[in-house]
Design brief:
2 copies of one chain form a homodimer. By secondary structure, chain A is of the alpha+beta class. Chain A is built from 10 helices and 7 strands. A 5-stranded antiparallel β-sheet of chain A has the order 4-3-7-6-5, with helices on both faces. In chain A, helix 1 (3-16) packs across helix 3 (33-45), helix 2 packs across helix 3 (33-45) and helix 6 (133-140) packs across helix 8. The first copy, chain A, starts with a helix and ends in an 11-residue tail after the last helix. Mean pLDDT of chain A is 91; it is low at 250-254. At the A-B interface, helix 1, helix 3, helix 4 and strand 4 of A face helix 1, helix 3, helix 4 and strand 4 of B. The first copy, chain A, binds a DNA duplex through helix 3. Chains A, B: Residues 62-245 form the IclR-ED domain. Chains A, B: This is IclR family transcriptional regulator. Chains A, B: It holds the Pfam family IclR_C.
DNA sequence: TGATGCGTTGCAAATATTGCAACGATCGTT
DNA sequence: AACGATCGTTGCAATATTTGCAACGCATCA
């Protein structure tokens, strides 16, 4: 909507690919070098980009600090974190916390598996929305019309043979998930990785976040993972309780 | 340098303080509501801000994803991380990794103490540059004139009685640190917290990062912490070796 | 030494941004 | 139920801001 800002912001993802020099930025933006220079300077003043010694620009520190603050503002995360840790201590697998935002579902917290074989994921990274267990939970909670609208707008990449193939299949899956109050992803994203997930609800009963336990086949079979479901659900409920203010939070001062 | 972009970027730190509505943003920026609206829209399109259900704006997900990518681009971090973990396993204390950027020194990685009493710090947060051990190492490596220039521009807040009081004292400390090749912060930031730090050098011998071990008095005395110095230096040297390409890195495929 | 490539600056043209004023919707009050 | 207030939103005209150009300085390299 604002051309100048639009161009400036486009520089950031570009630099995320790796450091670039002025010419490269100008080319990628399709603007004159002088224009790119002035945009970069403004970004620089705000600390969003950093000019390294070889004159190449890269993403700056303020960005990292801001993101950190953004995450601290997500109070679900604050509340959930100790629970995630405890769950990880109990089962040993990777534990994720995810929220739905702007047609994306993204991880906002993660506790690494204690097994040597781990799944790859990254905080802040959008998840495979059509197959991830947490995504199903978050989308399943939307009102029916929104759910349909979202489902039809999505792409359905066939990561594996068990990936959700299309909008119809996805909507059916969401209905099921909504019904049963938990979700799984059995090899729908990575052939050998399974997940069990449970919803976290706010005071209004809406699903505001979802958490999951993920483990590769080589560590536990899907069936074994499913035996953890009650534990996952209990944990999610405990978080819901605190988050919605029903459960008093025990203050622990360091 | 570019007014529009400048204004747009100013919105982000503002939102980092907490969600705000249009009026508030406009006020803080000192612009008309319609202007603020258009800026917010542009930020929104890029996913930098998110409009929550109550019409308040907050920092968006793309910011988190970008920051994560920015950190992954810092390859010192990649290389150092397993070493930090190992060091933490050996000593149990909080381990930090920091770099110098744009007149700030900031943490880019952290492994939490395994003791119940922990120090507060945050990845992405600028450190107390005049007292932190890692900051001393990073600044001590600058050429003499730059060092002086930086030292004179800084403020010297008296966090504690042992904080560096002024530029002269700081430069003397830097000279000492430069000489001995390691640094400490003994209660200069928080009365009860001590740190030992060692430099990480790139192929050119310049200090590109610094790492530290921090622990509160109640866990170990300053003297006890200092006995860890050889271990910290060995770890830092190991990272330097890998980072500068001297030590072959053992590829570990998950 | 000359040539090429890069970042940088002043300037005038023109485009994009701004603030205004009016509208519509939502919410709380009388 | 109607009214008033508050807040977000849009079209428009004025103008300030941004843009691309061309020229310059500086480095590197042949």
């Amino acid at each position: 909507m604002s051309q100048t800002v639009d161009r400036a912001l486009s520089i950031l993802p570009l630099l995320a690919e790796g450091p670039a020099d002025l010419g490269r930025v100008a080319d990628r933006l399709g603007v004159h070098k002088s224009t790119a220079l002035r945009l970069l300077r403004t970004l620089h003043e705000h600390g969003f980009v950093y000019r390294q010694s070889d004159q190449h620009y890269r993403l700056g520190a303020r960005l990292i600090a801001l993101a950190q603050e953004a995450m601290e503002n997500l109070d679900v995360r604050e509340i959930a974190h100790p629970h995630l840790i405890r769950l990880n201590e109990q089962c040993g697998h990777t534990v994720h916390l995810a929220v739905h935002e702007e047609n994306e579902v993204l991880y906002i917290d993660k506790v690494e598996s204690r097994y040597p074989v781990r799944m790859y994921s990254r905080i802040g990274k959008p998840v495979a929305i059509t197959v991830a267990a947490v995504a199903k939970l978050l989308l399943a909670d939307l009102p029916e019309n929104e759910r349909r609208a979202v489902a039809e707008k999505l792409d359905y990449p066939l990561y594996t043979a068990r990936s959700t193939p299309n909008a119809d299949g996805f909507l059916k899956e969401l209905a099921k998930v909504r019904e049963q109050g938990w979700a799984t992803d059995l090899g729908g994203h990575e052939e050998s990785i399974n997940c069990v997930a449970a919803p976290i609800r706010g005071a209004d009963g809406r699903v505001t976040a979802a958490m999951s336990v993920s483990a590769p086949n080589v560590v536990v079979t899907a069936d074994e993972l499913l035996t953890l479901l009650p534990l996952v659900r209990r944990t999610a409920d405990a978080i819901s309780g605190e988050y919605s203010g029903r459960t008093p939070v025990k203050e622990v001062t360091a």
